[in-house]
Design a protein that fits this description.
By secondary structure, this protein is mainly β. The chain is built from seven helices and 46 strands. A hairpin with a 5-residue loop joins β9 and β10.
Length: 608
């Protein structure tokens, strides 16, 4: 009697557990991503009243007599069957059409796995789920190619949280997740630079996505400086070792002078001031400033102020010179001392000033062609005019391997008689092979340039942007605009010809598509062995196996379906049926307890 009661009590316990499981299933019938559970029972140990005996020649065999002691909980299994797809019309919701799990990272850095793909971007640009856990994705290189092992998989440790810079995120629209987990977006209205047909020297023009530029972009001014020789090439495209030097300096940097606030070429001086006491003190420094405008080197270029030291008429006036810092660099120089042809018109008074801004033109420009037959050098001057001068008769240098061609090139003043000696060194075999015809000595280009352009902002206001270029540089940056150069074409340009030309215009983009992340899916050898962690999350257990990470749709993970979530896989009809079984089982075990109690009562009442 006592055994029957204990057995019934164990039956009550396991049926209560069954009811608890059913209750949990039913309560989550509308929980996205929920997986229902089931309970199995098992019988417990038995007491042997008699053992089994084998048959003999005279007697048959007998079975064992055993008494059971009730039921116990066998297993509580999670049913990993796939739930249905519920349409949500939300682009960052995803349904897994297969056996994969989405890996996410909690606040402690632990990796959890879930079937519930309700994602959104937080204020810092992190892709997170409804509980704020970061979605983990497969890394991509700079070209947007996902980084996987040879078998198309990777490990959980190789994943990274998917994130987009907030300033970039606010420019993106139509963010969506594809069937293979690629997260894409459209940058509506991203500005684009449209070049004009006359800009073949630009390979590509890119503009910052946050720029305010709109409309026409025009080059308004180009200030070149210095000169560089691009060596000629033979029929095989090999450079010929032609070199150049100028007397007293390296390279082709022959400067001119542009005068403002007055003019040595005939305009009256209009800027008249009286120098402070002691301003003209100091000693002459001819080593630094001798023949100022003839031999001004690149490091000396800048703005200089000329102060009249001795009054006079025209060239009779005497001047002292200060640099941009106000330091005296030359005293008592006449106009001819300063390398300026012509004279100041009219009388000037002591203390009168004018400003000279050192020019940046080169005396030689463009293609250089030498004709050995008549020793003539053909070139283009700084103003773009074709010039021809007679050179000295070429002679072998000290090595006997090269010819030296000496040309006295006029400096680029308006009415100059001042010349600059330029020496070309040409390989002997190249020179002698071209005795009967002209030969190329290369092309002279600017060594550097300051380029100014006008742009308009979105409010229609004109703005000025400036960029610098140095020989060998493959790009120019003008404010938010970057020009990638076709150096082969750009190096041959007369850069001054770019002034007052239209570069192009800035327009709104046509909606460039960007891939901003790649979701991952994990599979397990035994997904039924995963441990439930609540909130539709699962942890790896000793019997689940490690996670294998792949792109959705590969290696059995299943593809993704956007704008949908996985519904609960609870079957209410089955749950109600199981509930009836559990109720009747519990009721039957209760009756056993009641009956056993009645028998015990009768036993107690045997003696009265």
């Amino acid at each position: 009697m006592l055994a029957s009661m204990y057995s019934a009590v164990s039956g009550l316990s396991v049926h209560q557990t069954k009811m608890d499981t059913i209750g949990n299933n039913v309560s989550n019938v509308n929980t996205y991503g929920f997986k229902s559970s089931r309970v199995t029972f098992s019988d417990v140990f038995y007491q042997n009243y008699s053992g089994a005996s084998a048959p003999t020649t005279t007697q048959g065999g007998t079975n064992a007599s055993q008494l059971g002691y009730g039921a116990s909980l066998g297993t509580i299994d999670v049913l990993m069957t796939r739930g249905g797809s519920a349409s949500t019309d939300r682009s960052l919701d995803v349904y897994i059409n297969g056996d994969g799990f989405l890996p996410v990272q909690d606040s402690s850095g632990n990796t959890l796995y879930t079937r519930l793909g309700n994602f959104y971007f937080d204020v810092q640009g992190n892709l997170v789920d409804g509980n704020g856990n970061k979605a983990l994705g497969i890394t991509m290189n700079d070209e947007g190619v996902v980084q996987l092992d040879e078998d198309g998989t990777t490990t959980t440790s190789a994943l990274e949280a998917i994130s987009v810079a907030p300033e970039k995120l606010k420019e993106l629209t139509s963010i969506s997740i594809g069937s293979t987990g690629a997260i894409t977006a459209i940058q509506e209205g991203a500005p684009q630079m449209n070049l004009t047909s006359g800009t073949s020297w630009v390979k590509n023009a890119s503009i910052s996505s946050d720029t305010s530029y709109s409309g026409a972009v025009n080059i308004t001014e180009v200030k070149t400086s210095g000169g560089a020789l691009v060596a000629p090439k033979n029929a095989n495209g090999e450079e010929i070792a032609v070199t150049v030097k100028t007397a007293g300096e390296n390279g082709l940097s022959i400067k001119s002078g542009n005068i403002t606030g007055g003019n040595f070429g005939g305009a009256a001086i209009t800027d008249s001031t009286t120098p402070a006491t002691g301003e003209l003190a100091g000693t002459d420094n001819p080593a630094k400033f001798s023949d100022l405008m003839k031999t001004l080197t690149g490091s000396d270029k800048g703005t200089y102020t000329l102060v009249c030291t001795t009054a006079g008429t025209g060239a009779a006036s005497v001047w002292s010179v200060k640099d941009a810092n106000g330091d005296l660099v030359a005293v008592n120089k006449t106009a001819s001392d300063l390398g300026i042809d012509g004279s100041v018109t009219g009388a000037v008074a002591e203390g009168d000033t004018l400003t000279i801004e050192s020019g940046s033109a080169t005396a030689l420009s463009g293609a250089l062609k030498f004709t050995p037959a008549d020793n003539k050098l053909t070139y283009t001057d700084a103003n773009g005019n074709s010039r021809e001068i007679v050179c000295t008769t070429p002679a072998l240098d000290g090595t006997g391997n090269n010819y030296e061609i000496t040309a006295n090139v006029p400096t680029p003043y308006a009415s100059s008689t001042v010349t600059k000696q330029v020496v070309f060194t040409v390989p002997k075999d190249y020179y002698e092979a071209n005795l009967a015809k002209g030969m190329s000595l290369g092309t002279v280009t600017a060594a550097n340039a300051t380029i100014t352009a006008s742009v308009y902002n979105k409010g229609g206001e004109e703005q000025t942007v400036t960029g610098t270029w140095n020989a060998g540089q493959s790009s120019i940056t003008l404010g938010n605009l970057t020009l990638d150069l076709d150096t082969n074409k750009f190096n041959k340009l007369d850069l001054k010809s770019l002034e007052n030309t239209k570069l192009g215009n800035v327009s709104a983009g046509d909606g460039t598509i960007y891939t901003i992340g790649q979701l991952a899916l994990a599979t397990f050898t035994n997904q039924d062995g995963l441990l439930e962690a609540g909130s539709s999350y699962y942890n790896i257990s000793a019997n689940s196996g490690a996670a294998t990470i792949s792109i959705p749709g590969n290696n059995g993970t299943g593809s993704l379906k956007a704008s949908s979530l996985e519904m609960s896989n609870v079957d209410l009809a089955s749950e109600f049926t199981e509930m009836i079984f559990a109720q009747r089982g519990f009721q039957a075990n209760s009756r056993v307890v009641t009956t056993s109690n009645t028998i015990l009562e009768e036993l107690v009442n045997l003696v009265r």
